[in-house]
Design goal:
The protein is mainly alpha-helical. Helix content is 78%, strand content 4%. It is built from nine helices and two strands. Strands 1-2 form a two-stranded antiparallel sheet. Strand 1 and strand 2 form a beta hairpin. The longest helix is centred in the middle third of the chain and has 37 residues.
Length: 210
């Protein structure tokens, strides 16, 4: 790798270590820390932009995206939450893709059946990877590192990630009110979310068997 690649990698490692050190010092789990951040965002007039920033730094810190998706549904409802989460998810995935591409060499010699499929049948492989719930950041970085078509990557990510995204957004949108005194749930959103989850898991199992 070139010197600038080593510098960027070192900076990323410093940020990652600093974040995990903060988590350890706070005596909280990653989910608890992230939840605290998101609760603070919910009272800010700039929550739209601030949540987007959290989405964008998420792949650098290797944070779970599910909680962000649920929070988008809680803040913006089923329709706008879905649109917001989809846009933010695609931007987050794109950032990871271009980070992977930045570190890619001219000749990539890594070999595996999955990597070969990514090279030869990019759209279908990314789509299937999303549907069977492979780790999202692994897919994002690998696609960038292999320099597959960005357009194919983006469309496959949108289509393959939509079922899981809807599950999270609807789960968040089901929280109609939330306070220290308690919360109120919308049962229709909960039922729809559970049905989508069951269908997604069923499709994932069938694809994994094949």
């Amino acid at each position: 790798m070139k010197l600038r690649h080593w510098f960027v990698l070192a900076l990323w490692l410093v940020i990652l270590v600093a974040f995990w050190w903060y988590v350890r010092q706070s005596n909280q789990s990653v989910t608890e820390v992230l939840t605290g951040w998101l609760e603070s965002l919910s009272t800010s007039p700039y929550s739209f932009l601030l949540l987007l920033v959290v989405y964008l730094i998420r792949p650098i810190l290797l944070l779970p995206i599910t909680l962000l998706t649920v929070f988008a549904g809680f803040l913006y409802g089923a329709v706008w939450g879905t649109l917001y989460a989809l846009l933010a998810t695609l931007l987050s995935a794109s950032l990871a893709y271009f980070i992977g591409r930045y570190f890619s060499g001219d000749k990539v010699r890594l070999q595996s059946n999955w990597l070969n499929l990514l090279r030869e049948r990019s759209f279908e492989t990314v789509l299937t990877s999303r549907l069977i719930f492979l780790p999202g950041d692994l897919v994002n970085y690998a696609c960038g590192f292999l320099k597959i078509s960005f357009v194919a990557f983006l469309f496959a990510t949108a289509l393959g990630g939509l079922p899981g995204l809807l599950v999270g957004v609807l789960a968040g949108a089901s929280l109609e009110t939330f306070s220290a005194e308690g919360f109120k749930l919308n049962p229709w959103y909960i039922v729809t979310s559970l049905l989508l989850l069951a269908v997604s898991l069923g499709v994932s199992r069938l694809l994994r068997q094949k």
